[in-house]
Amino acid sequence: MTEENEWDNILHIRTTGRDDSIADLTRYPYEPTDYCVLERLAGSGYFSKRNTLLDYGCGKGRVDFFLAYQTKCRSIGIEYNERLYARAVQNKANAVAGGRVSLTLVDATEYAVPAAVDRVFFFNPFSVEILRIVMDHLQASYQQTPREMLLFFYYPSVFYRQYLAAESRLSLLAEIFCGDLFKESDGREEVLVYQFSCPNDSF
């Protein structure tokens, strides 16, 4: 049995398998984050029971259920694909940490970020054009309720890297290297951790 299946069994969920069913040029296919990467993220010290994670493009909910189980954080998964959302809801009904996870069927461009959110996860869920809109939503939430807000970008694309490097609202806090977790060398195997702030922000 693979590690992927082992963790799914422990968590009482089913999250394996890629889904390209309604992917297009702006919203990308569902591919679950490897559990070995999530283990490293859980052990990074950035998550605890005091935090609330927002997972953009949650798919079947792996990130949400795993981090809620391992770190006791609360997690919000949003997904626009109705079929994937239905799978996530089914997982929540059985998941050992399901009570700490909430799910919403919504387009990321229309989602108002709750004031409780202080951790945000991205695994290339959509284009940079949509990411720009999402950043504005994050800013609106941040300005209404200033707090520490950390953004986690796993396996960032070239386009994401270019955007993040030029985004004045973000400061690179850390790089969590994950390349050693896989047999083949891949420079993109990392999680970039950014702190969100607004220009001239005194928080």
How would you characterize this protein structure?
- One of its GO terms (biological process) is methylation.
- It comes from Selenomonas caprae.
- This protein is an alpha/beta fold and 203 residues long.
- The chain has one domain: 3-Layer(aba) Sandwich (Rossmann fold), CATH 3.40.50.150.
- It contains 6 helices and 7 strands, in the order ααβαβαββαβαββ.
- It has helices spanning 3-11, 35-42, 62-71, 82-94, 128-144, 158-166, and strands at residues 52-56, 74-79, 101-105, 119-122, 150-154, 170-177, 190-196.
- It has a 7-stranded mixed beta sheet.
- β4 (119-122), α5 and β5 (150-154) form a beta-alpha-beta unit.
- The model has no long low-confidence stretch (mean pLDDT 92).
How is the secondary structure organized here?
Elements (H helix, E strand, L loop, with lengths): L2 H9 L23 H8 L9 E5 L5 H10 L2 E6 L2 H13 L6 E5 L13 E4 L5 H17 L5 E5 L3 H9 L3 E8 L12 E7 L7
Parallel strand pairs: 1-2, 1-4, 2-3, 4-5
Antiparallel strand pairs: 5-7, 6-7
Helix pairs in contact: 2-3
Q: Hey, roughly how much beta strand do the residues contain?
A: 15-25%
The figure for the number of domains is 1
What class, by secondary structure content? alpha/beta
Task: Count the E strands.
Answer: 7
Count up the helices. Answer: 6
> At the first level of CATH, what is the class?
Alpha Beta
Pfam families: Methyltransf_31
Keywords: Methyltransferase, Transferase
InterPro entries: Methyltranfer_dom (IPR025714), SAM-dependent_MTases_sf (IPR029063)
GO molecular function, one term: methyltransferase activity
